[in-house]
Amino acid sequence: MASSIFFCRSGGDFGRVERRSFDSRTCSARRVHGSARPATDSRRGGRRAALVNVACMSTSVSPSSANIRRLSEDDCSPYLSNLARHAVHWRKWGPDLPREAAALGKMVMVSVGYTTCRWCVAMDDSAFADPKVAEFINANFLPVKVDKNLHADVDMLMSSFVQAILGSSNWPLTVFLDPHELQPFVGAGFLPPDRLLPALRNIHAKWEAEPSTVVAEANRNCVGLQQYFESQFGSHARGEGADESMDKHTLLQQLVDAAEQRFDGAYGGFLSNEEDQGAYKFMRPSLLCALAHAAQCGGAESYASKAEQMVTHTLSSIVCGALFDHIGGGFFRAVDRKFQIPIFEKALSDQALLGLALLECRSELDLALKDPNLDALICDCVTQTLQYCDRDLRVCVKTGSDSVDAATYFAGQDSDSMMLYGVEAGTRVEGAHFLWSDFELQLVLSPSSEEYKTFCATYGISQYGNLGFVDATLSSSFAGVSPPTNAGLYEGQNLPRRQVGQHDATDASKCACLDRARSKLLAQRRTRPPCARDDSVLTTTHCMMICFLCKAHAELDEGRSDLLERIEYAARFLTDSLLDEQGPHLAVKRAVKIAPDQHRVVASSADLAQADDYVWAISACLALARVSEDDESRHAWTDRASHLQAGLDRLFWDERLSTYRATSDAGLVVTLPRCYDDDKPYFVAQHLRNLREPSVSSAHTRTILDAVLHAHSRLVAAAPLSSPALLLNMPS
Q: How much is the pTM?
């Protein structure tokens, strides 16, 4: 069902109004093929995004309300706490919002962002901080700020709506809701002050003049969204008429064929679509794992060799190219088509899920036997990533005594840091922390040393720099706006990345030489101004890290005790700080706040836990059971997993659709999930793996498993690239 929406494309005249329809098919078209943010850099707000606009009318200003609760500096979200004293009187999404909005009668302006999002911060510091903009918002709207990491459910709804009307969605997001049902009316991406203020005036004027029209439009939008989300399940699923009896072998072949259409044979990885050669590549770990599984299951079938070739080429690009930080370890957020220029942000979820994917692909493809060089590079990459997480994201915590007995991990790091010299000295510049001039390398390593020569040859270092230009195709994805890299800023700078023919990880002497060089460079780099850190502590990412640690311990530890100790500390933090016994039930917290200087949890988030919190907590408990050394511990972890399964069923199971809802938040007009994998697997697909675990198998879990598989069967058959994790975790 389509409903009409007024909007004006980015860069256009807000007085010129164009007509476009909301169509639920638009929601699904891009989702079938991959990333939720396929068109542009998701951190930069996709400046090509447009703001929905209505016809210009006179403005009527309503009085502001003094009793609306502002954001708190003690909030568990650093992003929200940093905006507690902002010019806009932001409040937090919560259960009181519907009542407050209805009482005020003002449209709700929801702004979605997160700490390490460069353009989210830019919009907060420019457009929203503009005195005229802030004054108008405070007087005429109920402004709500959402941390997308804390409220993934709100982000899911808002981004789906914006994608449906504009064709793509990127952070920051701004969506206007009617105050009675909190249904979306219009939506936006990044906008500067000179374009934001006229749009705000037009939207407010439309509400003042024709509130019934706004409510009717918002209602039609909501109906369209609901129809799209429900169409993913059961008899209404995409591809109606697909053969539900198709076996996994056939589905894997379809997945390989679909992935081949998006595979970048020149550089590895997968394109967001066939036409957009310049978009950044965001990794989809579940796709790599599903293709590796197809290669292993396919035997002599032709699709098996195609799957293996795509996976090995992409794995090589990941561990050798600019997606990986070759000095300090860890994965950057995304990378350009050629794996030369990354988005320098680092997210904990990427470290855990890409690390898990590398280990799973290594095992599925038996790389230790088939390609020892790539296998050694993967093991080294995983080890360095664990070291990065330990060094820069891990925080030790006192849970019940004066001694440190637990540990967790912060959510990630920003891409920007202070430039120390040059025309940009004293300003924060993206990637500055990670770049090297040849002169700096010579100062640290000595130009005549074997370390310097080996390092430069291996990592493509040039006296002129290896980032002194921007590929023209990269610029195309920014629609006329300069991308984050430019020739002047990066002139003469180098970002280490392994060169073709320089990946012999089995050469012990060369590896030792490179280790010494990297160690010296890392020590020097740590004297530079650091990147800002996102100090959020989220249940989902903590549990992802537990799964990663347990997998690495099983495959790489080889009798060492260092990973086992980290697993024990992370497990204690899970039980003492993130799980909560509520009578007969075991509940999960969404997030907690830690004071690093005190080594203590100082607050727990009041936000409702979501389905993915329970799913990943179950996954973590099962992973801990697998590495437990005694029966008592194994039983304790599987018992916790069973209690969490009961909580997941009680809070989120939808009997009518035979699937799990993403959230139990009654304030959201749509609570169903989107059935696709982006950088994280679809949480229901992840839970299929939990349900298949023999240690928790029961008649109940088998019933749930069968129901979920039936509800998603046509989606898997019609759109295998939508959620490779669903296919991966299906029984054979």
A: 0.88
